[in-house]
Amino acid sequence: MPTNKKELRAQYKNLRRGFSTEDINEKSLVIANNLIVLSIWDKTYFHVFLPIEEQKEVNTEYVLHLLSGRDKEIVISKSDFETREMTHFLLTDNTKIKKNEYNIPEPVNGLPVPVDVIEVVFVPLLAFDIFGNRIGYGKGFYDKFLAGCKPETIKIGLSVFEAVNQIDDVFESDVKLDYCVTPLRTYTF
């Protein structure tokens, strides 16, 4: 069983390719339903990733419905691949979404949101371990973004897979999750 980021990243990308869109949607709905019991609903500003469908990421449409049904402020991001920084925007009825060259759906325009008002972040990932370490695509966007959040910001990974025992090559700069929600359970770190 691989335990380093490079091997785990390759393994879990490959495993995800085996899912149909229906599989991902079913798992994503269960994940969204599992979020309901977390004690996060007193917060106002929720950052949500918009899934890269081609990468079979968790479909956050169900999370968006949950948030809008509870009148939460929804924040989405745009990625700058030169600086590896993300800028954040309020998702409104007027927000135009367009896929970038990496098939990441992003806001074209919108009201900027400072990182320090974001209270909850739903984090995309490929794999995670029982200690709350996560593996993304390796570009560092989320580590940089999460490091800039307030310490009390709640970081919730969303995964179609369960935790691996350990990721060996964790760096000091890697930001740990507070929770990870899967179709089968919620991990608390």
TrEMBL record:
ATP binds at K5, K6, E7, L8, R9, R134, I135, G136, Y137, G138, K139, G140, F141, Y142. It comes from the Bacteria. One of its GO terms (molecular function) is 5-formyltetrahydrofolate cyclo-ligase activity. Its EC number is 6.3.3.2. Coiled coil: none annotated. Its cofactor is Mg(2+). GO terms for biological process: folic acid-containing compound biosynthetic process; tetrahydrofolate interconversion. Substrate binds at I52, E57. InterPro entries: FTHF_cligase, FTHF_cligase-like_sf, NagB/RpiA_transferase-like. It is an enzyme of class 6 (ligase). Keywords: ATP-binding, Ligase, Magnesium, Metal-binding, Nucleotide-binding. It catalyses: (6S)-5-formyl-5,6,7,8-tetrahydrofolate + ATP = (6R)-5,10-methenyltetrahydrofolate + ADP + phosphate. Belongs to the 5-formyltetrahydrofolate cyclo-ligase family. PANTHER family: 5-FORMYLTETRAHYDROFOLATE CYCLO-LIGASE, ATPASE INHIBITOR/5-FORMYLTETRAHYDROFOLATE CYCLO-LIGASE. This is 5-formyltetrahydrofolate cyclo-ligase.
